[in-house]
Amino acid sequence: MSTQARIPPALCAIHNFIRIHDPMEIEDFVNEDLVDTDPGELPVRGDLAEGPADHAERQQATKDRDNIAAAMWRDYTRIHRARS
Known about the structure:
The protein is mostly helical.
C-alpha cells in the first residue's frame, strides 16, 4: 500500500514537469484518422459554455448528481447485504 500511495503524487509530478518543459507536447498526439480532415468536418465532442450555468442547468446537474448518488447507494447496499 505504501507504494500505491506514491503513484498519484508521482504522476502529478510528471504531469507538471511536462507542462513546464514541453507545454505543446499534446500536439504530438494528433489522431491519425483526423490528420487529413478539414477542420470544419472534425467531430464535435461537446459544447463549450458561453457563461455561467443558468438555473435550469444547475437544477438538471443537481438531479443528475442525485440520481448517480442514489444508484451508487443502491449498489452499495445490495453488495453489502450479499456479503453479510
